[in-house]
Design a protein that fits this description.
alpha/beta
Length: about 120
């Protein structure tokens, strides 16, 4: 029987060194690999990857979307406000779809949403 363990989003990067530094500063995710053109970013038990693209017609930097599911969103939101990642007005509480959440864009226009279930 197959047991699903995790999914790992891979987001596009037009400048890997710049983006690794930005994620460390703005989100606390740290690069844990030394691969050319590729980065594995981790924070606690969460992981996502960045892959460098040339930004050409044949190898475009395409914006993606990632949702990070947490429990206890307020301390993380306050941390991200202090880091300058989001403004204090970005937190949405008790959305019609049953979440507390906030979002932001990275330097490649990847949309990052952090959310928690209200229930």
């Amino acid at each position: 029987m197959t047991k699903f363990l995790a999914t790992i989003p891979v987001l596009s990067s037009g400048d890997l060194a710049r983006d690794i530094a930005w994620y460390a500063e703005k989100t606390g995710f740290q690069n844990v690999t030394e691969q050319e053109g590729y980065a594995i970013l981790q924070r606690e038990n969460m992981e996502f990857h960045l892959q460098w693209h040339q930004g050409t017609e044949d190898d475009p930097v395409l914006a993606g979307v990632m949702r990070i599911w947490v429990k206890g969103i307020l301390p993380l939101f306050e941390e991200f406000v202090q880091r300058g990642t989001v403004g204090p007005e970005k937190l949405q509480m008790n959305t019609p779809w049953g979440t507390n959440e906030f979002g932001f864009y990275d330097l490649n226009n990847n949309a990052i949403f952090v959310m928690e279930d209200v229930s």
